[in-house]
Amino acid sequence: MKNLDGRIALVAGATRGAGRGIARALAEAGATVYGTGRSIEETSELIAVRADHTDPKQVRDVIARIRRDAGHLDILVNDVWGGDELTQWGKRIWEADLKKGLTMLERAIDTHIITSHYAIPLMLGRGAGLIVEITDGEGMYYRGNIYYDLVKTSVIRLAFAMAQELRRHGIASIAVTPGFLRSERMLEHFGVTEENWRDGAKKDPHWIASETPMYVGRAVVALAADANVMNKTGRVFAACDLADEYGFVDADGAKPHFRRHIEQNAPEYLFPRLDEKFWSYFAGPYDLWMSEFDSGRRNND
């Protein structure tokens, strides 16, 4: 993997799943990684910091520690989720538990905003940087539960919106989705381990195209190492497509591509991909106003 020696990374939500895989992959590539979570464990791969990202004070404390230790931040990954036990599949908005739904929005959207608010000042002034929003899916299709749908599409939009505000600072903001993620929770669901995971395909044949959390982790590494990453800012990418572009493989040497698997084996389940133009950037009156505002502020300084 690409050499990220000297880079400082914060992975918010590194307790398990995609977040843990991303933290491991960044460390594997040489970055110094701060991993946070409400139940994070100390490991040799990252600097573990317990933090609840719904609490602004705790997030401020995390950023203050990084400032003391390293003085800056190069990579921010927002992967705080905590909504598995709150998702009520099959229940419509008037049937779902309102408190659970609103708690999911707080845990998985508010946390990303709070973390970005406090972390971005530690990234400014260096002329480069990367923020990654971890989502589920690339498209604008309905994701089966209104609150889950709001979370996963909102963080894509968050990446797009931050890209507009950060492009003049050279910081890329990108959303990334894994495919069929072979996380700890999914291994438990299928009753298998990473050693015999293929046995889960007896329960769901599409499981054979699943990927470990290291796959999306290496996707983030590839983006962080790309000198031309600003060409991708404001957009959403699947880990499998980034693997095709950058040439990395999963932890077991495989190169799964879940969408291609579905195209070949169950095309009736294909979801439409996000039209690039939907999120594309158009300079307009507001952008001109922002440029003038920034220029005036610099002159005043």
Question: How is this fold's topology laid out?
Answer:
Layout: E1 8-12, H1 17-28, E2 32-37, E3 47-50, H2 56-69, E4 75-78, H3 98-119, E5 129-134, H4 146-166, E6 171-177, H5 184-190, H6 213-225, E7 236-238, H7 239-246, H8 258-265, H9 276-279, H10 285-300
Parallel strand pairs: 1-2, 1-4, 2-3, 4-5, 5-6, 6-7
Q: How is this structure best described in words?
A:
The protein has helices spanning 17-28, 56-69, 98-119, 146-166, 184-190, 213-225, 239-246, 258-265, 276-279, 285-300, and strands at residues 8-12, 32-37, 47-50, 75-78, 129-134, 171-177, 236-238. The chain has 301 residues and is of the alpha/beta class. A 7-stranded parallel beta sheet has the order 3-2-1-4-5-6-7, sandwiched between helices. Mean pLDDT is 90; it is low at 275-283.
Give, in order, the helices and strands.
EHEEHEHEHEHHEHHHH
> Low-confidence parts lasting 5 or more residues at pLDDT below 50?
275-283
Span between N and C termini?
A: 42 Å
The proportion of residues in beta strands is 5-15%
- Order of adjacent strands in the largest pleated sheet: 3-2-1-4-5-6-7
Q: Name the overall outline.
A: globular
Q: Structural class, from secondary structure content?
A: alpha/beta
Cα-based radius of gyration, to the nearest Å: 19 Å
Number of β-strand runs: 7
- Characterize the largest beta sheet: strand count, sense, and whether it forms a barrel: 7 strands, parallel
What oligomeric state do these chains adopt?
Answer: single chain
Helix fraction by DSSP (H/I, runs of at least 4): 40-55%
Mean pLDDT across all amino acids: 90
Number of helices: 10
